[in-house]
């Protein structure tokens, strides 16, 4: 490898180095390949090792690198495109839905923001279904689906059954309602402890949060809060199947 010196730039030096390293990952290294040690990399780019570590940490945060004790720093696989298609217009759990129900509970305690979206009153019971999504063998998302119990009264019949059976019952009940439409918002967030465990991430890790509202009979009937790993997946909108995409 040749020697590349960083020129004086207005942005932080480690951030510029991150960009240069990212381009090198795309052109010089294969997935799984171990990078040279920090001393050699710092010499190549003419930076202090502290600056190099900052750049490597940022690339790891973005999912470009894996840093493992005893192995070194390796090039991570490309991010996987995960379809989040607003054109499907179906309830969660409909045919073709690749989310898997994990469990469900009925409770009066829901986040205030969710209660406002559902227009529930204090004391109203809400079914909370927890689901997970796996793509190419990797956990990519965790979801909490909130449905007022009044919208799915048939679920009371499975109250004594397992939590997973309750989850499936809620999804089944939704299919009997007439879906009028849905909308989605996407924002950057931090992984909650429960989501982080499900996604094999550390609490506070960056995630993409997709909030979906489902409308029926002129009101919001269900709200899904889907938490996607920001380091291993990229959300795609459209009819095409999920495909591997470059992370850079």
> Rg from C-alpha positions?
22 Å
Largest sheet: 6 strands, antiparallel
CATH homologous superfamily grouping of the largest domain = Chorismate lyase-like
Q: Give the percentage of residues in beta strands.
A: 25-35%
Structural class: alpha+beta
Number of helices, counting only DSSP H or I runs of 4 residues or more: 6
CATH level 1 name of the largest domain = Alpha Beta
Strands ordered across the widest β-sheet: 4-5-6-9-8-7
What fold name stands as the CATH topology of the largest domain? Answer: Chorismate lyase
How many structural domains can be distinguished in the coordinates? 2
CATH architecture assignment of the largest domain:
3-Layer(aba) Sandwich
Number of strands: 11
Q: Which range best describes the helical content: under 10%, 10-25%, 25-40%, 40-55%, 55-70% or over 70%? A: 25-40%
For the termini, the CA-CA separation is 21 Å
Q: What topology does this entry show?
A:
Layout: H1 13-28, H2 38-45, H3 49-61, E1 65-68, E2 72-75, E3 79-83, E4 99-107, H4 112-118, E5 126-135, E6 138-148, H5 163-175, E7 181-190, H6 193-199, E8 206-216, E9 219-229, E10 233-236, E11 244-245
Keywords:
248 residues, alpha+beta, Arc Repressor Mutant, subunit A, Chorismate lyase, 2 domains, three-stranded mixed β-sheet, 6 helices, elongated, disordered C terminus
Characterize the structure shown:
- This protein has 248 residues and is an alpha+beta fold.
- It folds into two domains: 64 residues, Orthogonal Bundle (Arc Repressor Mutant, subunit A); 166 residues, 3-Layer(aba) Sandwich (Chorismate lyase), CATH 3.40.1410.
- It is built from six helices and eleven strands.
- The strands form three sheets. A six-stranded antiparallel β-sheet has the order 4-5-6-9-8-7. A three-stranded mixed β-sheet has the order 10-3-11, with no helix packed on it.
- Helix 1 packs across helix 3 and helix 2 crosses helix 3.
- The C terminus is likely disordered.
């Amino acid at each position: 490898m040749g020697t590349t010196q960083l020129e004086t730039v207005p942005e932080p030096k480690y951030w510029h180095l991150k960009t240069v390293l990212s381009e090198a990952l795309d052109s010089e290294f294969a997935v799984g390949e171990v990078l040279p040690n920090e001393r050699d990399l710092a010499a190549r780019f003419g930076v202090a090792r502290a600056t190099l570590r900052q750049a490597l940490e940022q690339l790891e945060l973005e999912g470009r690198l894996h840093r493992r004790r005893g192995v070194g720093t390796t090039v991570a696989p490309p991010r996987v495109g995960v379809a989040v298609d607003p054109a499907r217009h179906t309830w969660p759990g409909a045919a073709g839905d690749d989310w898997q129900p994990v469990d469900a509970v009925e409770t009066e305690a829901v986040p205030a923001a969710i209660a406002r979206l559902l227009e529930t009153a204090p004391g109203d019971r809400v079914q909370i279904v927890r689901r997970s999504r796996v793509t190419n063998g990797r956990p990519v998302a965790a979801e909490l689906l909130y449905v007022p119990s009044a919208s799915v009264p048939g679920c009371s019949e499975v109250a004594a059954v397992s939590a997973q059976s309750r989850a499936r019952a809620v999804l089944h009940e939704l299919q009997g309602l007439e879906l009028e439409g849905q909308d989605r918002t996407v924002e950057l967030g931090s992984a909650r402890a429960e989501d982080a465990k499900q996604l094999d991430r550390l609490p506070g890790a960056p995630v993409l949060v997709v909030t979906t509202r489902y409308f029926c009979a002129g009101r919001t009937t269900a709200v899904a809060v889907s938490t996607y790993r920001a380091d291993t997946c990229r959300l795609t909108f459209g009819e095409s199947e999920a495909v591997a995409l470059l992370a850079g």
